[in-house]
Amino acid sequence: MEKVLVTGGAGFIGSHLVEVLMTREAKVCVFDNLTAGTLRNIKPWLNNPDFTFMKGDLLHTADLKELESNHYKTVFHLAANPEVRVGSTNPDIHFKQNVIATHNLLEHLKKTRNIFTLVFASTSTVYGEATRIPTPENYSLLTPISIYGASKLACEALITAYAHTYGFKAIIYRLANIVGPRNRHGVIHDFTQKLNKNPKRLEILGDGNQTKSYLYISDCIEAMLLGLEKSKKQVEIYNVGSEDQIDVKTIAEIIVEKMRLKDVKFKFTGGVDGGRGWKGDVKNMLLDITKLKSRGWKPKLNSKQAIRKAIKQLINELLSPQL
After folding, report:
1. Tens digits of per-residue pLDDT, 197-252?
2. CATH number listed for the domain at residues 3-178+215-240
3. Are 246 and 192 in contact (CB under 8 A)?
């Protein structure tokens, strides 16, 4: 493989992508400000001559100048604030760390005048509360209900326009909930942390009926790389998720089972807007992945299997000394 740049490469999805790229003998540069990511995630590669780490922030255009001497054939843009909930209390975070950061990267790449492919990690939340389930990529009512989803949709629009205007290829992946090792946010992490503090009571945001698709990280990375290989159009958009769903209450029950806890009382907050966990929480999400399957990809694990595997690994990582 040619030279590859991964923004946010020290984070959850980014570090797993880097791992696969390095095993495929790519020359990888990770650009990360280490706010959500950590060097521990990419420690095996720090002394590898084919790997480069640059600490930098996409909000600081001066930091991007460090990349000017390199000509990357593929740019994976994964840098973002992963906390969906923060948008309801501080929308500036998603506007800056998603929209402005993406604009700064696009401006930098435009100036290089190289032919390259930009791969962007978007989100299922761009669909909002879709009325068509499973939801295909050509679903036209893109009405996000969270600031996070709106900011990602704005990034998609910018990337599409820049690709057509300045002549590079772009692949946009609308991801379901991705789970697995090194993930330090989301429902699995939240529940295990709460139960570690109080093994008799678990607060669950919303009514517990929020039902969504979950995908294991290795399936996600395989999808991203296969889509990169198979895409021919100037701009391609793919849904990436499992073909089934699981609700929040069932996830809580699986975590309790895996932690070998007894008599745990679930405390549902009741939520907002008809049982959502927070403002902007999508209650029902399932993506139509027919398009990516037609390219030759299919998830190996369904939602429940992905959840079970991720829970087991997280317990081993974080909680086993206390259990």
Report:
1. 999 999 999 999 999 999 999 999 999 999 999 999 999 999 999 999 999 999 99
2. 3.40.50.720
3. no
| Alpha-carbon distances, residue 37 vs 98, 147, 256, 258, 278 (angstroms) | 15, 22, 28, 27, 25
- pTM, full prediction: 0.94
Question: How far apart are the C-alpha atoms of 225 and 296, rounded to whole Å?
Answer: 11
All CATH 3.40.50.720 domain ranges of the chain, comma separated, are 3-178+215-240
E strand or H helix at 197, and its extent?
Answer: helix 187-197
Length of the chain in residues, anyone?
A: 323
The answer as to CATH 3.90.25.10 being correct for domain 184-212+245-284+303-319 is: yes
pLDDT at 323: 38
The residues that are catalytic are 148
Closest by alpha carbon to 74, among 218, 217, 228, 220? 228
- Burial letters 193-216, b for 16+ CB under 10 A, else e: ebbeeebeebebbbbbbbbbbbbb
In the chain, CATH 3.90.25.10 sits at 184-212+245-284+303-319
